[in-house]
């Protein structure tokens, strides 16, 4: 089950505190440090642009395909270790109906990075794509690729929204700062340094942010583990104390849902532009692989503190704290358990350090989402469809305007809990059930064509809607095996239905691509009905392959002659 921290604003007003001035000073210093780093990186970007012979858009979006290895590792890790990652793991571990076994994020991300490094990085880099949508645009044309870009853009906008929500809730607990002010300030800072220097600014600020996340979280852990209100977490791991054991269990009838959530996190991440932006910015394929593998290890390490914080919260006698009873879970505040634990179980100065980790995590994910969506719009829609002759200077302004628009849209959504919930589900599910099978087919199956892609696209959307979603009170029209009422009385799919939809979508793409290829190649339908021109493209592909083969043979013959003459 996915932690719902990213949708829920903190509503605790029972213990109203005075504005935490020292905390505000520390946060102001943090934001100035990040903004200063972003400005410095933007100056570096301009220097690189003068030295580089490539176009300015590639420098802005991919750092000239020459990002430093260490910086690449930091920015890829920081992109995945966001506010939802830190707060969500703590929530799942603390939640008595879930437990640590449902805090899935770190382990699936290891699979994401290994699959990306071994399989997806190579074809994307060999073809020198700028975005993950380039292969779709080249093979399927502008109309269908524009439809496929839509869910990716929606997912990025909602990525901005859900990361900001997690920060707003945390600041309202620890700093007692207005939710609105904390959201707006964070959004403005992230937008400014992202539009100033593109990927250079994002990557170098990610270095600062990841260091802060690592140090801040691990500084807080000893204070939490030794606080007088909690018992030893090793005693509560498998024993009932103040609540159910924090390790949790996966019952046999819940195994399908657990597997579905695991696969969604593992494979859904491979359909995000932010991932490909990092591996395409590396100077070589080997560097891209090393970046992926190292980032997977960092994700595991950075997930440990959140698990420990959730475990401490589950082992706490809240009645002995100033928080009192009912417990955070009973007040429906499990989503804010990390800031609540920092506020009531650690000294004030430690809780301020902790909020630095959350703020850094939020900023590191938000700037990635801003640049990711700006990349898709500017490169695949504006440059390739609207203004093919756009100059570098014009494209720079398009990217900046895109960053601002996406930032404002995501910020606006943070004030509408239910809307964020709806669109988050749309974004995440579409990344897995629709975009992932499309990406697999276009990269690894030559038979795929526009007809199959269209059928798979529609199949994924229709089946996902008909499968229902209890979080938005959408009842399932299709009831997979094991569909039943959950603890809240809502009809829920316990079968791995998202994975089933993904597989069905993938098979539909391949099957209908193969059938339409036979229909037009055998002349069963006239070529004038071939909307996607698959027969013509196959001929041009074959011609290009012949030319390439001829050139290779000529090159080999020349090398042989040179060797003989020597």
TrEMBL record:
GO BP of this protein: acetylcholine biosynthetic process
Keywords recorded for this protein, A-Z: Glycoprotein, Ion transport, Membrane, Neurotransmitter biosynthesis, Sodium, Sodium transport, Symport, Transmembrane, Transmembrane helix, Transport
UniProt xrefs under PANTHER family: HIGH AFFINITY CHOLINE TRANSPORTER 1, HIGH-AFFINITY CHOLINE TRANSPORTER 1
Any matching Pfam family: SSF
Chief localization: membrane
TM regions (residue ranges): 20-41, 67-89, 101-120, 140-159, 179-200, 207-225, 262-280, 292-314, 349-377, 397-416, 422-445, 450-467, 500-520
Subcellular location(s) per record: Membrane
Superkingdom in the source lineage: Eukaryota
Name of the protein this chain belongs to: High affinity choline transporter 1-like
Topology relative to the membrane: Multi-pass membrane protein
Annotated InterPro entries: Choline_transporter, Na/Glc_symporter_sf, Na/solute_symporter
GO molecular function, one term: choline:sodium symporter activity
Family (UniProt): Belongs to the sodium:solute symporter (SSF) (TC 2.A.21) family.
GO cellular component: plasma membrane
């Amino acid at each position: 089950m996915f932690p719902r921290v990213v949708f829920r604003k903190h509503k605790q007003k029972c213990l109203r505190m005075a504005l935490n001035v020292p905390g505000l000073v520390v946060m102001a210093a943090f934001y100035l440090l990040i903004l200063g780093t972003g400005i410095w990186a933007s100056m570096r970007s301009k220097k690189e642009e003068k030295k580089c012979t490539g176009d300015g858009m590639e420098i802005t979006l991919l750092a000239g395909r020459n990002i430093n290895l260490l910086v690449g590792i930091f920015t890829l890790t920081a992109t995945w270790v966001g506010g939802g990652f830190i707060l969500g793991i703590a929530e799942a571990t603390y939640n008595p109906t879930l437990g640590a076994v449902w805090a899935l994020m770190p382990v699936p991300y290891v699979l994401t990075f290994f699959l990306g490094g071994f399989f997806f990085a190579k074809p994307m880099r060999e073809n020198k794509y700028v975005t993950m949508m380039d292969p779709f645009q080249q093979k399927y044309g502008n109309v269908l690729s524009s439809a496929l870009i839509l869910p990716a853009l929606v997912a990025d906008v909602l990525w901005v929204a859900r990361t900001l929500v997690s920060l707003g809730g945390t600041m309202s607990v620890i700093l007692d700062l207005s939710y609105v002010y904390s959201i707006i300030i964070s959004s403005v800072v992230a937008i400014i340094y992202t539009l100033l220097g593109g990927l250079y600014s994002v990557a170098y600020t990610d270095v600062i942010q990841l260091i802060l996340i690592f140090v801040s979280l691990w500084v807080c852990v000893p204070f939490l583990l030794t606080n007088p209100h909690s018992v030893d977490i090793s005693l509560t791991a498998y024993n009932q104390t103040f609540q159910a054991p924090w390790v949790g269990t996966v019952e046999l009838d819940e195994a399908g849902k657990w597997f579905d959530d695991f696969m969604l996190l593992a494979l859904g991440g491979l359909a995000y532009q932010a991932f490909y932006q990092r591996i395409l910015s590396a100077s070589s394929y080997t560097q891209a692989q090393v970046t992926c593998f190292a980032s997977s290890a960092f994700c595991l390490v950075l997930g440990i503190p959140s698990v420990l914080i959730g475990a401490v919260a589950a082992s706490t006698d809240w009645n002995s704290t100033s928080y009192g009873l009912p417990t955070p879970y009973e007040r429906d505040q499990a989503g804010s358990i990390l800031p609540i634990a920092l506020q009531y179980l650690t000294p004030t100065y430690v809780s301020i350090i902790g909020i630095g980790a959350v703020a850094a995590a939020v900023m590191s994910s938000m700037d990635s989402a801003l640049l990711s969506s700006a990349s898709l719009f500017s490169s695949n829609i504006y440059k390739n469809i609207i203004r093919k002759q756009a100059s570098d200077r014009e494209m720079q302004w398009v990217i900046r305007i895109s960053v601002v628009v996406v930032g404002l849209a995501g910020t606006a959504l943070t004030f509408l809990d239910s809307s964020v919930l709806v669109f988050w589900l749309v974004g995440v599910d579409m990344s897995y059930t629709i975009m992932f099978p499309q990406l697999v087919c276009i990269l690894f199956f030559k038979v795929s064509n526009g007809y199959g892609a269209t059928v798979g696209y529609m199949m994924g959307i229709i089946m996902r809607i008909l499968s229902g979603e209890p979080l938005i009170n959408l009842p399932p029209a299709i009831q997979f095996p094991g569909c039943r009422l959950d603890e809240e009385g809502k009809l829920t799919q316990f079968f791995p239905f998202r994975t089933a939809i993904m597989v069905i979508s993938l098979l539909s793409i391949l099957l209908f691509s193969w059938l339409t290829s036979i229909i037009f190649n055998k002349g069963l339908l006239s070529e004038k009905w071939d909307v996607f021109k698959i027969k013509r493209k196959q001929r041009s592909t074959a011609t290009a392959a012949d030319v390439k083969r001829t050139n290779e043979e000529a090159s080999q013959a020349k090398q042989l002659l040179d060797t003989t003459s020597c």
